[in-house]
Q: What sequence folds into this?
């Protein structure tokens, strides 16, 4: 309740970082959302807003729906500046729905910030595939040491 009151009195916008991941042992998926903002005393703040079970298919509509519920719970639908997400197409489509509904400042130009770590990981994974011809014999040799 204290966090909701702080958001209600906040003069600045907030930015979110969201991710969805799967627990392969329990066959569950989760959505985590963290919130970042500068408070009225000009201190950088960050809080975990939600960590929710997300067993629905990872469609744009389902992602958007859960995010919007969380934004409404904290009163952030009109105070939301940007969201950092990975590059999955469902995430991009869900952001487009949020832009339509939340009507962010500057037309949502910076509303979807693609996660740099995720993009970097995709590059590294792609490079590792091209090196597989060299890595496989090394792994095989190490196995017998």
A:
């Amino acid at each position: 309740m204290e966090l909701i009151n702080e958001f209600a009195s906040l003069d600045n916008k907030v930015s979110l970082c969201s991710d969805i991941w799967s627990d392969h042992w329990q066959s569950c998926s989760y959505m985590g959302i963290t919130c970042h903002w500068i408070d009225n005393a000009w201190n950088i703040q960050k809080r975990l807003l939600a960590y929710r079970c997300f067993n629905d298919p990872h469609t744009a509509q389902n992602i958007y729906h859960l995010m919007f519920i969380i934004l409404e719970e904290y009163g952030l639908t009109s105070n939301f500046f940007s969201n950092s997400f990975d590059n999955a197409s469902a995430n991009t489509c869900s952001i487009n729905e949020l832009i339509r509904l939340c009507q962010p400042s500057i037309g949502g130009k910076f509303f979807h910030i693609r996660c740099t770590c995720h993009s970097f990981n995709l590059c590294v994974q792609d490079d590792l595939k091209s090196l597989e011809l060299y890595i496989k014999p090394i792994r095989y040799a190490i196995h017998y040491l």
